[in-house]
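Researcher: Structure prediction, please.
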Amino acid sequence: MMLDSHTCYRALKARDARFDGRFFVAVSSTRIYCRPVCTVKPPRRENCRFYTSAAAAEAAGYRPCLRCRPELAPGNASVDATSRLAQAAASMMEDRTLDGNGLETVAARLGITDRHLRRAFGAEFGVSPVEFAQTQRLLLAKRLLTDTVLPVTEVAFASGFGSLRRFNALFKQRYRLQPSQLRRHMHGAAAASAAVDVLKFELSFRPPYDWPAVSAFLGARAIAGVEAVEGACYRRTVCVPVDGKAHRGWIEVAMSPKKPALHVAVSASLAKALPPVLSRVKSLMDLACHPAEVARALGALARRHPGLRVPGAFDGFEVAVRAILGQQVTVAAARTIAGRFAAAFGEPIASPFAALTTVFPAAARIAELPYGRIARIGMPGARARTVLALARAVANGDLVLMPNADIETALDRLRALPGVGEWTAQYIAMRALAWPDAFPHTDLGVMKALGETNARRVLAAGEAWRPWRAYAVMHLWQSLQKKE
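Model: Predicted structure follows.
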């Protein structure tokens, strides 16, 4: 985002939630930086400095506000290639699921040089990848100290620090407080999460957010044993590898009744995997969306359901398998087959919820199976071969199914898999890759909503909704729900 200081200051004075996470304001007189929605009295214009990221503000010597808490600001969605590249690198570093998450490893996974990655990172965030990663670790530690009662040592390692001594020294240097001092200062907030078996967080978004539609979408596609939507809550089991070790547990997501935020509960078994867990929840619930921009692009199509999001993926492989199983069958039929798939190849897990019993199988597990074993759960042999080819491509690293991954490379590799056509590739791009311009134009629901039987004419109609066609698809599907 190109910062215009006058626009930023107007947004700050208005506490305009549309700009939350798009910039941070640093105050030279206090050496503190805030979100534009901070409730403190706006500083004088001459004392304000505006930055594109929290990392850039901290690199300039500012420390985060304890009231508005910059670590809670929503992320940013982008369709610009350079921006998506930097965001993808940031996601990979935060996810910590690579075998080593150094810059060279991340650049190699993205198919670029580390020099190119540094340039893209600087253009997007205003800092180097190392500075960005350090700030993200510190902000996560600040969140854990504030919102949980995890011991300081556990906070340090959960945030990605290799030693307690290094964590304490950097925290004090940057924030002018010892971690224990911050915890005492925020003791009232921490006490709310006193249950040691559950960690609770808030994840902010830019309003509006159509939670009923999003939860209904996820509920209709929930994989038995793995996911469940009960009342106003979405729950699921998860398995996240960090530094070569698998961490299993569960999450629960619900809308905050008072704030533009989601309440997220995480089982304590996932404490050492919190960065990727929270990052994936943000992706699943599309919290980086800019609803005002989407609404402007879609016009009348978006008016009935303001704030409708495109549900992403907690696990890209899971969503891709679900898409393949959904080829040429109803949503309900695909859900049944996906449930059998998870029951046959997933791992059992204990949880406090009767509906959550199974962890969805990893790509590496499926890649080792003969296709006949997959077909025996009740799918055509050709489809079983497609699932097997997908699993092998993901397991060996040929196919990266993460938000902001290079879209053209990913689509080309998806289309190269046997049995993956344009509908499947676009649906996977829409959800697993978080590509806001994905457009499965041959989808029967899209065609029905448009009253059109010619796929070429559907594709032409979609040009009016670029670069947010994935959101147009969600609105078209939602219009069918109303008709039914």
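Model: Confidence is low (pLDDT under 50) at residues 189-195.
Researcher: Thanks, that helps.
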